[in-house]
């Protein structure tokens, strides 16, 4: 499966699919040959930790015509293989002796193929398997999970939001979540400061302010569809950040509103998760699936909030959806079938939009435009479905196997 992704990105349509890798290679060439490193020499759109995977791929060379992209593809294949290994050995906490299932691993691979080469040729492909590993071990090793999610957030910001779900799902959140996250952040910031880049260490937070309403974002959907019939709506290339955006009556206001709603949505998600924790009460710590479900479904909720209420909607962001679903399936958590199928559908629709028919998106082709709109509607449906799943009662079998066996014995006894 990864061989197919590499073939598409390296051979069939490299300019469309793996264009970002050429940018990564160029940044590393500047650093290695001219000493101009991102963050250290100036502001950068990514957190400082993104240098590490970009530099690792420079083993294949950083010059034009080098094997940089091939080494990157190999690196992503290895990382995804590690994620598959964890998915194949993940068990539910209430059934630790039960046989593992391969459904989570197969679903993960199917998702990657349906998402297409963007699942390999972007920085997000580095963090997705890290999040899979982190969620797989979260409740047994929350400190390691916190460190992994924080390290991933210093590569691409999104995994940092999942720390909220982890905070809610553990007994001692300050010691198990906040302290490890703080230690990792201190190490990263201290390293950047020692290398002279402290003034730019947070530049990734401000570099996004110049963005408008990106054409693929869910918030752009009304204008995207209206643009099929109205000449007042245009699609244009934001040259400084090489992103296609949409412009028309109200689009700048929508972008500004989404910038505020993004953080409000994360805050609302955090409050919902905390309410759920309090509502579950003793069931959170009974040894059943309540805590696991809260963690994984909470991770899905936070991910969807970042996607739906985001003025930026790059295709690779859809890859953020996969880790919670894959881990939920590997854990055999009930009630995830609809989420799993809808997520696969969003991946397939995203690949149709990018890279295969992206030129029709920017030129206003009706078929691909409506496919993109349907994908965005599916994201909203997923968000609503996830909220509903979090507020409805858990299934009655949320008990450890040993407790269920004891209850059956008790009910079968004459005294009962």
Automatic annotation (TrEMBL):
Q: Does the keyword Transmembrane helix apply?
A: yes
Q: Which UniProt keywords apply?
A: Cell membrane, Membrane, Transferase, Transmembrane, Transmembrane helix
Where does it live in the cell?
Answer: Cell membrane
Q: Is Cell membrane among the key words of this record? A: yes
By its UniProt entry, which Pfam families does this protein fall under?
Answer: GT87
- Membrane topology classification: Multi-pass membrane protein
Segments spanning the bilayer are: 41-60, 67-88, 108-135, 147-170, 176-198, 257-274, 294-311, 340-358, 370-391
The superkingdom listed in its UniProt entry is Bacteria
Task: Identify its protein family.
Answer: Belongs to the glycosyltransferase 87 family.
**Protein name, entry field:** DUF2029 domain-containing protein
Instruction: Please tell me the species this chain comes from.
Output: Cellulomonas humilata
Lineage at the top is: Bacteria, Bacillati, Actinomycetota, Actinomycetes, Micrococcales
């Amino acid at each position: 499966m990864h061989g197919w992704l590499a073939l598409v990105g390296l051979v069939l349509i490299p300019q469309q699919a793996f264009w970002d890798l050429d940018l990564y290679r160029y940044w590393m060439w500047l650093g290695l040959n001219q000493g101009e490193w991102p963050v250290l020499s100036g502001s950068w759109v990514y957190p400082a930790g993104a240098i590490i995977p970009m530099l690792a791929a420079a083993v294949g060379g950083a010059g034009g015509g080098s094997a940089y992209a091939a080494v990157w593809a190999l690196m992503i294949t290895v990382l995804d293989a590690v994620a598959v290994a964890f998915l194949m050995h993940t068990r539910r906490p209430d059934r630790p002796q039960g046989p593992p299932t391969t459904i989570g691993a197969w679903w993960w691979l199917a998702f990657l193929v349906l998402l297409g080469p963007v699942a390999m040729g972007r920085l997000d492909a580095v963090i997705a398997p890290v999040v899979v590993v982190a969620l797989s071990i979260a409740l047994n090793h929350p400190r390691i999970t916190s460190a992994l999610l924080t390290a991933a957030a210093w590569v691409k910001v999104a995994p940092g939001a999942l720390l909220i779900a982890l905070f809610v799902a553990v007994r001692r959140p300050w010691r198990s979540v906040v302290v490890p996250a703080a230690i990792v952040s201190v190490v990263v910031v201290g390293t950047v400061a020692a290398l002279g880049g402290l003034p730019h260490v947070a530049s990734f937070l401000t570099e996004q302010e110049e963005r408008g309403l990106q054409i693929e974002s869910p918030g752009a959907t009304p204008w995207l569809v209206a643009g099929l019939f109205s000449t007042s709506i245009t699609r244009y290339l934001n040259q400084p950040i090489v992103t296609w955006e949409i412009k028309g009556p109200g689009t700048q206001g929508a972008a500004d509103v989404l910038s505020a709603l993004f953080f409000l949505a994360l805050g609302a998600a955090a409050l919902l998760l905390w309410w759920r924790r309090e509502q579950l009460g003793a069931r959170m710590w009974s040894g059943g699936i309540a805590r696991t479900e809260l963690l994984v479904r909470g991770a899905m909720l936070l991910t969807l909030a970042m996607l739906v209420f985001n003025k930026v909607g790059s295709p690779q962001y859809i890859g953020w959806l996969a880790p919670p679903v894959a881990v939920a399936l590997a854990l055999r958590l009930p009630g995830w079938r609809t989420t799993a199928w809808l997520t696969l559908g969003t991946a397939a629709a995203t690949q149709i939009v990018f890279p295969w028919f992206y030129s029709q998106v920017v030129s206003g082709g009706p078929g691909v435009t409506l496919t993109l709109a349907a994908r965005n509607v599916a994201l909203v449906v997923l968000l609503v479905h996830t909220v509903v799943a979090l507020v409805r009662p858990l299934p009655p079998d949320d008990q450890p196997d040993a407790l269920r066996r004891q209850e059956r014995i008790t009910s079968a006894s004459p005294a009962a």
